[in-house]
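Annex B. Sample input.
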Amino acid sequence: MKARISQRLARFGAERLPYIKALPRHQHVSAYATLVLDGRFTQLSYAARQHLEPGDVLINPSFDCHANKMLSRGITLVRLPWCQELTWGGVYRNVSIDVVRRLADKDPLEASGLLAEQLADKSYVSSVMSDWPDKLVMDLQANPRLEISEWAESVGLSRGYAWRCFKRSYGVGPAQFRCELNARAALLRVVSSKEPMSKAAVDFGFSDQAHMTRAITALTGTSPGRWRGRYLCQDRVARVTDGMLNINS
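Annex B, continued. Sample output.
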């Protein structure tokens, strides 16, 4: 895996972003929700390319990498904290966001809870674009061992042409993208279960645990063992806090 992608922290609350043609690929460790109030843009992420319009709610998952392309003269967003999100994320539509938006000005955390209640009985809509690079992303999601040259041949493309066009769309070649997908999937398994790391390595296409460790460290800057320790610590703190709240209630 190549040099680690730059990490960013989501700025919670409302923000007006002036027009920029494109925002380069970057990484967010923590999940967050985005409410689109005004403007249009495309997000290119591990969920493939998604087109966003005013009124949409975008869930950006844990350990996601994405780039953005503006399709309007600026956009207005509200970003909210979100719980750990182990899916690829996605888009919700037909959500009543006005109350959530107003509450976010006072308390982003409470607004996040209200949004979660509104989304509880809804499902992601199909907002993924349908060109062949996006189909390749979805096939890479489904198969961590997908051979890109064989895939390209199956859809009538040369390997070189597929590589160039994919990189032009996503900012990184398909082999690198596959490695990142597999590293993220393995890391989410590591932090959400107690099974041996060696099993996660095998399940997500790595030759051994050391290979997986190098890929996760290259992607996030931290080893999977440290990530697991951090999440176990957070879980213990949450259980102790819940116990204290129950005792005092």
